[in-house]
Amino acid sequence: MKPFCPIGVVNAWKPLTHRVYRALIEHRHFFIVVTLLTLVTTFPAIIYIFKTDVYWLPSTARDIYTHVWDAWYGQLVLTGQADRPYTNLMFYPEGIDLGRHSYVLPNILAVIVFQLFLPLSNSFSLAWLLIIISSALAAYIYLLWFFEDKWIALFGAVVFAFSPHVASEPHHPDVTYIVPIPLVLYCFHRGIREQRTALIILAGVLTGLTSMGLRYTYAIVLVMLGLYVCAFALVKWRQRRFWRDIALLVLVGAVSSAWGVYPLLRSSEVSGSVLGSYGGRQYYTDAISFLVNHRHPLFGPLLDGIFQTPEGAKTSATSFLGYLPLLLVCIGLINGSTRRLMLPWALLGGVFLILRLGPVLTINGVAYPDILLPKHFLDQVPPGLFRAFVATDQFMAGAVLPLAILTCFGLVALRIRAPFPTGPAVILALVLIVAFEYYMPIREHKVPQASFDFIDWLKLEEEHGEIRLINIPMGRTPSLVYKGHQAVSGYPHSEGAISRTPESAYDYIRASYLLRAWLNLRPINCEISVREFYLADLAKLEADGFSHVVFHRPLPHGYKIGESFEYARPSYEDQFVSIYRLEDLRESCPAEPDARQRFAEAYAKTLLNNLSQINRHGIAVIFAPNIPAADLLIHHTRSYQPAGRAVLVIASDEQENVIIQSSKSNEPEAIADTAAHEALWLVNLQGEFRAERTPAFQDWFTEQFHFCKRFHEEAQAHIDLYLSADIPCSAMDESSALEVQYDSGVRLHNISHVARDEMLHFYTAWTNNAPKHYSFSLQFFDESGRKTLQYDSVIDRDLLSTHKIDASSLPAGAYSVKLIVYDFETQISQGGLVAGGGQRFERELDVARIEL
Questions:
Q1: Which tens digit of pLDDT belongs to each residue from 467-478?
Q2: CA distances from 43 to 35, 174, 792 (A)
Q3: What distances in angstroms separate CA 248 from CA 192, 226, 237, 240, 520, one per listed residue?
Q4: CA nearest to 376, candidates 365, 364, 392
Q5: Nearest-angstrom CA–CA distance, 677 and 126
Q6: Residue 588, SS3 per DSSP
Q7: N or C: which end of the chain has fewer CB within 10 A?
Q8: Which residues, in sequence order, are CB contacts of 712 under 8 Å at separation 6+?
Q9: Domain 730-851 belongs to what architecture?
Q10: Residue 260 near residue 218, CB atoms below 8 Å
Q11: Are residues 232 and 238 in contact, defined by beta-carbon separation less than 8 angstroms?
Q12: Does pLDDT of 419 surpass 80?
């Protein structure tokens, strides 16, 4: 065996390094121009990248913290310190499935390398500059081979890489996955033309690479490649090698896509979220954005003023095409020698530009709902791939490369027809014009170093045990900030945010008495909550490993929950945060509750434990002994909204004025407002706090409402049904009721009527827990079967509703009344099943026979 020879290895590398050196020299114009343009258009990024004492990011959008977190967490995954498909660093202790989360692997790798000599935020910003240069290089490689002209290729690369879709959103480094688009088409195009299997395999690998990041880009690459294959198939469909190459491309692409696609497919919840779980409104669909760079410091305001773009229009900051590129496209299409070559690219780019317009045409804020566009029909196609494109400007990823190629054809035509030289100087001038047209100043975000001081304090706390945080206020926007903090500290915390956070991630939070209140932006402390529940939940949070509550006061909605810490002293506090150990919150509880707290706690527990057993709509009424007790109970009910019901708490002040407070309103209700309710649940405790003993329980209540029946009784807790004085108890008499369960989830508990003079009073008791809205129609038919009267109304979410129908126009006689329930939006009738007898019906149901 020959001994290892380092000199031989070095000599083997010499031809490669020589080729790289020659390429750099030959294409130095590209590297110089693109680097200078990158530094100028992203200024002052280059300054802050090397200022290691400043935490600086190139965007004020909070989404940027997600990608900073990705770079940090990706490093943990690659070093074996964390799992790729799951983490409990967010949504601790249950954790969250990361299958739906998009990682930008190239960006993560670049940040890891840069962190060898730069801090995390600086590395992230430097990686963003690399994305722009890499995008330009990928387009340059394809265009250089395609047009065989390095200056034309330079111009096309600038159009591609400095287009708003690529260069304007540093908070979305997943635009990295636009880099493979020109490389995929280059490898496939050249591989088919030169019959090079290696390039076909590389095209498949690069296609799979895009699946690891933004799913939108992966879908666009598949569509582009599919259209590209169809174009080649028109001329090569007879060639066996062509179909062999296509089969190889599909096989390699499928295998290399498994890493990104498998996590989506292994869970129906995940795939359902990604494919078509969205509906309704779509964003960034306005066609005016093709012609206006809304964020250009000079032309943005000027063109918005000229076009009079209205406020609230669905404009897009990343869809501007540029006037010079459009002019060059027109020049190319006018020239007969380039027109035929341009048409396939114009069709390819046109597909994505039309999809970018969304389901209906919108121009300068004016929607034309009668003009349905292709996306409207594609949204209906299972499994909903196109419906997932809610932000339709994502389709620009498929349009920028065809646009760049079309502009290059325009330069070719200009060289043929122009009466003046179109050499490097002219190309450079055109490059500067395009860069100026596309320019958008970055919105830099400087984070004060003092805002991270609390992390240094927490590190000192590690000697007392592991640190696991409850960051508040909660919500998606604050959670993005907390991800940026976690990328610095590494501490697990109770909430989080990923690409599409599933509702199930919040199960633990919603099950917690304290966390649920903070999630709903409700203050909660031992004074304004059920003491027993408060202390029990604190103990559970401690048992689950939580150590501190970090209250970020300046963040949005922080003021709403500040009362949570009215009686607690922070263990650490600065201008940004207050930190409480969980024992600090426990010590803030008084030793014994007073009478006011005993009242509030007793009724709060009754509401939680008993009211939820009545699966009916309605308003709960509680009489309090005094105003302070009423205030405290309202605090309780606003923290958790028991059983989704509104709660009215009624008390008298010192002047014997009746004060009515609602859990769903900050303004007190008047007695007259209460009289508008037709049915109430009176919640009563028969011990110390009995309703009849309170000063507010006066004649006004018994005059407006009368007792009908006791719906629930448990120990000393009674829940009684009271109806408005003019409504008979038969309206809620379920013993003789017509009860119907509709397929949509709507339930009719009872429908009855009484005749008063020439008015028919119909009483309906519904339960509609479905998310959609439904209506009903009462239709009157005479003895000959002719419809004589119709009454329609929306099914509300009240316990009981009264519908007054004027029957004065009907002649004397017998009438049958039929009930039809239908979808409020689609007008589609609903079928159902009559309870008891089990009678099935598909549309209408006989509910009454009336003699007039």
A1: 999 999 999 889
A2: 12, 21, 63
A3: 12, 14, 16, 12, 53
A4: 392
A5: 63
A6: coil
A7: N
A8: 610, 613, 614, 718, 719
A9: Sandwich (2.60)
A10: yes
A11: no
A12: no
